[in-house]
Specification:
heterodimer, A: alpha+beta, Heat Shock Protein 90, B: about 110 residues, alpha/beta, about 30% strand
């Protein structure tokens, strides 16, 4: 077993999955992460929050990053411990500036049917950062008693 | 996700059972927007057994809300459980949608 993940170069403890750009491919890794969180004793609130953030990150990567191009891939890496959840999602798109995404909670944006993914990630995870010109999102959630 | 539809006091009730995730959005869109296209304008989404909702599914609810309102009707939400209530509050969509404790209350309001 390699000590580093081949795509991300992350060290031991990280699980890496390379997903084709197909929305149905989100389901299995999502279930796996939630199942492992259950095994680690995370409560339902934590599991809901992580699932929501993970789903939003993967959907954004496929839809907005890879623009549903089946030739492009999404790389998911995660490290789960009893203390914290770390997730990274990288696409093969052109990247974006998260600073210019409109705030969907403003009154004038409430009726917009899209644009809530990043806000939900930020709301339900403790740390969210975009690197590589927005091609990769890195998220952390700490376990709270 | 499973979708059950029924009528209650003249309203078209769409019960969303299970996980309203990205892979369920198409079915949700068909149920809600299809209902409106078929003439229903008073829509109640029964969320009592909805365990998860993603931003895409929220977008479907908003699209249905706008379409129903454009035809003089409404989309009301009934009985969202704790996690869904939190998502609606976090997104401030609790300021857009009327939210009721149950379908009966949602249908009773004029």
């Amino acid at each position: 077993m390699p000590s580093h993940s081949p795509e991300t170069g992350l060290g031991p403890g990280w699980t890496e999955k390379v997903l084709p750009t197909r929305l149905e491919c989100i389901r299995d890794p999502e279930r796996e992460v939630v199942s492992r969180l259950r095994d680690l004793g995370y409560d339902e609130d934590h599991r809901f929050a992580v699932r929501l953030a993970l789903e939003e990150a993967l959907v954004n990567a496929m839809k907005h990053g890879n623009r549903m191009d089946p030739a492009r891939r999404v790389v998911l890496a995660y490290r789960l411990s009893p203390e914290r959840v770390e997730i990274r999602v990288r696409d093969e798109g052109a990247g974006f500036d998260p600073g210019v995404v409109p705030d969907p909670t403003r009154d004038e944006n409430l009726q917009r049917p899209c644009g809530r993914g990043i806000m939900l990630m930020r709301s339900y995870m403790d740390e969210v950062s975009f690197v590589c010109s927005g091609q990769e999102v890195q998220m952390v959630k700490h376990r709270k008693p | 996700m499973k979708i059950n539809t029924r009528n209650a006091a003249g309203c078209h009730v769409v019960e969303i059972e299970g996980s309203a995730d990205i892979n369920a959005s198409t079915a949700l869109r068909e149920a809600l927007l299809g209902g409106i296209e078929s003439g229903a304008t008073k829509i109640i989404c029964d969320l009592g057994r909805t365990t998860f909702i993603c931003s895409d599914a929220l977008g479907v609810l908003i699209t249905a809300y706008l379409k129903a309102r454009g035809r003089g009707g409404f989309v009301r939400l009934a009985d969202p459980q704790e996690h869904l209530r939190d998502v609606l509050k976090t997104t401030r969509l609790d300021h857009l949608f009327e939210i009721f404790t149950d379908v009966k209350c949602a249908a009773a309001k004029p």
